[in-house]
Known about the structure:
Rossmann fold, disordered N terminus, four-stranded parallel sheet, alpha/beta
Amino acid sequence: MNEISSNLFDIYGxxxxxxxxxxxxxxxxxxxxxxxxxxxxxxxxxxxxxxxIALGNVDCICVPGAFEIxxxxxxxxxxxxHKAVIALGAVIRGETPHFEYVAGECARGIAQLNLxxxxxxxxxxxxTDTAEQANARxxxxxxxxxxxxxxxxxxxxxxxxxxxxxxxT
Length: 169
């Protein structure tokens, strides 16, 4: 019986090592909350390095804000160059309904890419009520969500590879 692993990491959180020297990944980052996004990108890059993925194999594209992220992700998916695309950014609630529109459309766009494509697009866009909450989730000394998004991307690549192997049997 073939089983699909649902977890890329063992109980100690150590990565499952494999040769990733020829794999390419992408980060699409919304720059509206630039200080937060920079921390997310730093966490993502550290996680790629932790998994022996050269940063030269990671394309990083910055866009004006979270609303623009799905369009660039779609363009990258269409290239069929990257194993996964990591979407990073921060949408912080304000005094108007703008938050709901931007956060909702960003999430919807990424969900559509995942439902209709074969390249995982990971939603690493923070949606918080306050800047303090966003900073806490981007803090490299804590659980940086940029790093978490990369781990999710690597896990999805692994799961999709296992599904592909099931098709071949």
